[in-house]
Design brief:
Oligomer: single chain
Number of helices: 6
Strand order of the largest sheet: 1-2-3-4-5-7-6
Strand content: 15-25%
Number of strands: 7
Length: about 240
């Protein structure tokens, strides 16, 4: 997820949607389409080599409109971002161009709501299945959240939108943590699992640390080449 602002940035109008409200979100179909289109584009064009072939079913991030809410659980949220771009720019109409979501992390339910072989690869193992280093990482008593499905319309990438969206997501997490605990001086742990070849560099620049890497051989879920999924952490 490269984010140099090589082109002018785009003004965004954003909205925070609690997970239980996604079922009545009027733009849910477009949201699912945006996530799948961006996910597929990244896996075909985002690395220096092809990971999945164009049009592969494995490149779908969401299989149905209900899946995102299922993954987020009752306490998660989704931020949707609109901008007047392309044909919409002339009449002021806004188009859904980016989204990010997050949820409180429960190590014992790490794969809950996940569907499909590819999605399960990005789910952190439960604490009982982790190495000692991972258990130590999660041992400190900190509020812990996990980022999910942060994407930008492929036509609007490299304009700083992902950084705007990430900042808004972290601020929303901090707001929710502050409302639930009287002492957040130690900070909040933010987890993300992502493909090494696509997004590890982006998150490293944003302050995350890689804690684990899982390598998958060619042919996994229909992949053309080998790839890695990395687990990362940052304290905010």
């Amino acid at each position: 997820m490269s984010d140099p602002q090589s082109r002018p940035s785009v003004p965004l109008t954003t909205r925070v949607i609690p997970s239980p409200s996604l079922a009545t979100y009027t733009d849910l179909t477009n949201l699912v389409s945006l996530i799948n289109r961006s996910f597929a584009h990244a896996h075909v064009h985002g690395a220096s080599y092809e990971i999945w072939p164009t049009g592969a079913a494995s490149s779908l991030r969401l299989w149905n409109p209900e899946q995102l809410a299922g993954e987020l659980g009752p306490e998660g949220f989704c931020i949707v971002a609109y901008a007047a771009v392309g044909e919409n720019a002339t009449d002021g109409a806004a188009k859904l161009v980016a989204t990010a979501s997050a949820k409180p992390y429960d190590a014992q339910k790490a794969s809950e709501g996940a569907t499909g072989e590819v999605n399960l690869m990005f789910k952190r193992p439960a604490v009982s299945e982790t190495k000692e280093a991972r258990q130590a990482l999660l041992a400190e008593d900190l509020p812990t959240w996990e980022l999910l499905a942060m994407v930008v319309d492929p036509e609007l990438q490299k304009r700083g939108l992902s950084t705007q969206l990430l900042d808004l997501t972290l601020e929303e997490i901090k707001r929710r943590v502050a409302a639930e605990t009287w002492n957040d001086e130690k900070g909040t742990r933010i987890l993300v699992s992502t493909m090494k070849e696509l997004s590890e560099g982006y998150y490293l620049k944003k302050g995350w640390t890689t804690t684990e890497e899982r390598r998958f051989p060619p042919g996994t879920a229909g992949s053309t080449n080998a790839f890695s999924v990395v687990d990362m952490v940052r304290i905010i």
